[in-house]
Design a protein that fits this description.
Elements lengths: L7 E7 L5 H4 E7 L8 E11 L1 H8 L11 E2 L3 E9 L11 E5 L13 E5 L4 E4 L6 H6 L2 H12 L9 E6 L4 H11 L4 E7 L4 H6 L4 E4 L3 H10 L4 E6 L4 H7 L3 E9 L14 H17 L3 E4 L5 H13 L7 E8 L3 H8 L7 E5 L1
Parallel strand pairs: 9-10, 9-12, 10-11, 12-13, 13-14, 15-16
Antiparallel strand pairs: 1-2, 1-4, 3-5, 3-7, 3-16, 5-6, 6-8
Bound molecules: NADP nicotinamide-adenine-dinucleotide phosphate.
């Protein structure tokens, strides 16, 4: 390790399970070191925050071996400051972004330095036209959109396609709208609340439906039955599924990042609820009106191969608002923002 890397670093640690105020502490911890030949040490400049991190911190989702203290966070952008002998294609000084394969630690990205292992998760050279904050946003959320649309979506190979994105103003939704519009001959309709309609339209949505307007939702259901190839659900729950599944064509797919509980994991998911959820998903898969798919695995290599070029050429942008960028020491505020369910685009921590 070179002398410019300090022995200790600042990190936002989850020291216990609980609310953001109770659980998150800004602490000095030992700086990780390159030990394995494929290790890369990154000085973190920005971190993309995802709802799963707040859900895990609260103790709402059953995660085996989840102990505290731990450093959460998976998405990052920063500079390489040290590397192992078998690292290829990356040099010290390179600006990079990417994601660890899991955003829940124990040695996550809410820190001044993070160790990544080449080959695990995603690591990409950051083009100079992307800020660290923009690059850090595009980890979990963008790959989730890709998984829901391209891997699970079963879109027709050719000809016109029609996609509905529920929750179009959030982290996943803003990427889903833009990614869907990169697919040729695709009409994209977004569902969001009135205050975000203009934003979603500006991302390329052909039409936007305000979910707070019963009239607008009723018109969608009445006029567009069996016309969609794909519904991408970033909100979850029974209401959207029951109301909208009939919009799908016979070979259409209901592809959800969340599942049968709205904002799943925002409340504690006990064993009984988990079993009930599993049963509902299984029943929908076996006997549902249309194909039902849940995003579980994220294809990290596609961030490197398919999505990074779209970010680099500006076809996909990270939606960032100044009031959603927080300093590392204010990570509590970042978690409170993400668990409000009202954030727009990405919540980012600046390090
Ligand atoms: N399965 C996976 O691997 C995976 C991966 C990533 C994310 N997820 C999950 O996917 C969900 C979405 O993630 P995210 O990062 O997009 O969340 P997010 O950024 O926190 O979503 C916030 C957005 O949701 C909108 N929203 C809230 N309630 C809504 C409703 N009833 N109808 C329509 N929009 C609503 C809000 O807009 P308004 O203020 O206008 O309501 C806000 O813009 C989370 O539950 C997350 O945990 C799963």
């Amino acid at each position: 390790m070179t002398s410019t890397i300090p022995e200790t670093m600042n990190a936002l640690q989850a020291v216990k399970l609980g609310s953001a105020e109770e659980a998150l502490q800004y602490n000095q911890v030992k700086t990780p070191e390159v030990k394995q030949p494929t290790d890369i040490l990154i000085q973190v400049k920005a971190v993309g925050v995802n709802p799963v991190e707040a859900k895990a911190r609260q103790g709402n989702i059953p995660i085996p071996f989840f102990s505290t203290p731990r450093i959460l966070g998976g998405d990052f952008a920063g500079n390489i400051v040290a590397k192992g002998s078998k690292v290829t294609g990356f040099e010290i000084g390179d600006a990079v972004y990417g994601s660890l394969s899991l955003p829940i630690g124990p040695n996550g990205t809410y820190a001044e330095y993070v160790l990544v292992s080449q080959g695990s998760g995603a690591l990409i050279k950051k083009p100079s036209n992307l800020s660290y904050e923009e690059a850090a946003g595009a980890g979990v959320a963008l790959v989730t959109a890709y998984q829901a649309i391209t891997v699970l979506g079963n879109l027709p190979k050719e000809g016109p396609k029609k996609i509905l994105v529920i929750g179009a103003s959030g982290g996943v939704g803003t990427y889903a709208i833009q990614y869907a519009k990169t697919i040729p001959e695709t009409e994209v309709i977004g569902i969001c609340s009135a205050k975000n309609v203009e934003l979603v339209r500006s991302l390329g949505a052909d039409r936007v439906v305000d979910y707070t307007s019963k009239g607008a939702m009723d018109i969608l259901v009445k006029n567009e039955t069996e016309t969609f190839d794909l519904i991408v659900d970033c909100i979850g729950g029974e209401d959207y599924y029951n109301q909208l599944v009939g919009l799908l064509k016979k070979k259409g797919v209901y592809s959800t990042a969340v599942g049968p509980i709205i904002h799943n994991g925002s409340e504690k998911v006990g064993l009984f609820t988990a079993a009930k959820l599993g049963t509902t998903v299984a029943l929908r898969k076996l006997f549902g009106y249309r194909s039902y798919q849940v995003v579980i695995f994220l294809p990290w290599k596609k961030l490197e191969s398919d999505l990074a070029p779209l970010l680099a050429n500006g076809n996909i942008k990270t939606v960032l608002r100044d009031d959603q960028i927080f300093d590392l020491k204010d990570g509590v505020l970042a978690h409170k923002k993400i668990e409000s369910h009202r954030s727009v685009g990405k919540v980012v921590i600046r390090v």
